[in-house]
Amino acid sequence: MRAYDRLRPTAIAIMERLDAYGVELDDQGVHVMMSPVNRHELAIAHLRWQLERQLSPGLMAHAGTPEIDDPATGRLRRPDLVVIPLAALERPGRAYLRPDDVELVAEVVSAPNPENDYERKTVDYPAMGIPTYVIIDPRKSTVTVLSDPGSGPEGARYRTRHDYMFGDQIAAGGYTIDSDAFLPYEGDD
Question: Where does the Putative restriction endonuclease domain lie (predicted)?
């Protein structure tokens, strides 16, 4: 029995019983996510506002997202923001997204756990077939855009990477992001 199959019920129970901000599941186990800091949430709000002005009818930028559940790869992820069709939320039952629902995923790096966004998710999201992954890093005032998921001898990876500094105009998944809206972390962030 795969770790995903054994641990998924535990991940769901943790979310429901502890009212955790989020729980993720990958081949390394169950990860309970801590509540984010203000500048983390502000970056997601700015990104959502910018994307919403550019989306085609029938698409939405959703923050505080439901989990992306992928039994095929054994991954359960709760990104900070996704671009999805509205129809993905019309399905009955608990709000889980399928990987093929997701057009773009974004994460804001948290100061205590940057490896989750830069290491694990740069493998998980392309393995799930998600076309574009945006990493906003207020620790370094950078934005990284990964696209063109594929696999190689070392597993799933994005084949294209573009790095930007806060203040740059960014192209990501057919959208333009003004990263001047993002603030770096300070002090207790």
Answer: 23-152
